[in-house]
Amino acid sequence: MQYEAIRVNEMKTPLYVTSLTSKSSAELVGRARRSGYCVFGETLASSLGRSMSSVRKPERIYYITSPPIRESAETPRQLMKSLAYDDLQVTGSDNRTFNKQQKDLGVGNFTKIPNGVNGAEDRMSLVWEKGVHQGLLDPCRFVAVTSTNAAKIFNIYPQKGRIAVGSDADIVIWNPQATRTISKESHHHACDFNIFEGMTVHGVPEYVLVRGRICAENGVVRVAEGFGRFIPMQVRPPFVYDIIEGKVQKTLEEPHEEIHNGNLAKKLAELDIQIPPHEPIMLAGNLPMPAEGSICSTPSVRGRVDGKRDMQESSFSISEELDRSGVRACIKVKNPPGGKSSGFW
Question: For residue range 306-326, what is the model confidence (pLDDT) as tens digits?
Fold first, then answer.
């Protein structure tokens, strides 16, 4: 994360950090934002909804995903707090389901465990239960972190992420008082277990409309094949690049002064939410951030030499040690990323 922050600073490009599942990683993104970087963070339904503290060891193979669901029972609440004070902005699902028989292929060999868990169907109910119902988020922030922020960051707003004339009629009729118990017996995932099995959640979608058509009603999915539409995401979303180009005021020190001085400070204090102090991002060894034009390092990807597929292998690395043989050259980016993405659900 430290090296990514350097690249954001030198190339004047935004950074979207996906799949943050630990308290420390969320804090790093928050520190980068308070240091003035244009960084956005996304956490996952699986890590907001549960920890591994109550999962028996023989069953843990069914919860394997990456980054992993954390051991500490306090992690889900800490991640929700990060969403509350805008250190994180988006909740995704990273949905990738396998049945128990497929997961059991990795018994005795970790690399053969199919990587992924469920999350899409229960994401919004989990955020409502762990966030709004428990007093950490208000309903407006709930809408932002589950819908609006993603639409803005990926440049499909206001077509998506807003209820207004001219926008797609994508609407969820939400019942905040209704409850349901999550179970493999009633879910719509193509797998025979659910990592949230037995959890009772407040907040139930009674109707889901897509482009004005009812596609889900009281737990029954009503979708016709071919009804879906590809939504192109144009590069350079204004929500992101107006910040970088100085067209809008987005200094993070000012909002934090308002938080400390306004009613929100009192509210956050009541919820036991501590606003982290403003700390500049530092390099390893407590060196200051390099000046503009300095040489930065880029992460590398370790290759596979045995010709076999490792189900746990990932091409993404948050950070790696600096090359011991010297400083690596930067990668020049002609058109930095901003809106082009394959999606985050």
Answer: 455 566 555 444 444 333 444
